[in-house]
Amino acid sequence: MSTAETLVTGAMVLVFAAIHLFTKRLRFLDSTPRSKWLSFAGGVAVSYVFLHVLPEIGAHQRTFAAEMGVPALVAESTVYSLALAGLAVFYGLERAVKVSRARSRAKGAGDRLERRVLYLHLATYGAFNMLVGYLLVHREEGGAGALALYFVALALHFVTADFGMRNDHSAAYDRIGRWVIAAAVIAGWGLGLATQLSGVLIGCLFALLAGSIVLTVLKEELPEERESYFRPFALGLVIYAGLVLAERHLV
Questions:
Q1: Which of 21, 137, 238, 241 is the most buried (most CB within 10 A)?
Q2: Cβ(157)–Cβ(48) under 8 Å?
Q3: Is the peptide bond before 33 cis (omega within 30 degrees of 0)?
Q4: How confident is the model over 206-222, as pLDDT tens digits?
């Protein structure tokens, strides 16, 4: 990676960290009905999944087939099974959060996470963030345009995810959680500069990342109590899709 690319990705990872540290100051997002900006970000995330993540999983599928010497159908099943596993793991984590908060309320301890569930939540999202930081340096789809689109999609995704995490355990998140996951994304970027993991391992991790992004979008946008807006959601989806298609076909 050139010095210029290092500086650009370094600036991007600092923005990611800043989002985690300062999302709580965006008080206009904390409203019912749901903020239109969050619905817009959800639309961008959905577009990112279908136009970036799923095609990139296909690229990793070819890497699996080549490096492991397995038939294309086996590689395809493996990669998409990992994406499904990523969705299942994050769904299980969200269920654990809800059950933990219910137990705390039943014990009269307030609406808070039990310590072990809090640590599990932070460890899981920390690993997710490390991968995001790593992929700033090592991505399947190269080029400045693709990197910019990756940055925009993940930045908006972080805003949405952070908003959800603060709803789950705002005190603990403000005290320690935001620092842990902000440090994790920087650590992942540093790891990407220091080393390059095998294509198969990156494919496995990326597939898990894909599943977690899908789950986060569904969790934040679909529940009825969110009172989400369809038009901002659709606008975010269409604008991001247009940018992706323009970057691929016009540049």
A1: 137
A2: yes
A3: yes
A4: 888 788 877 777 776 55
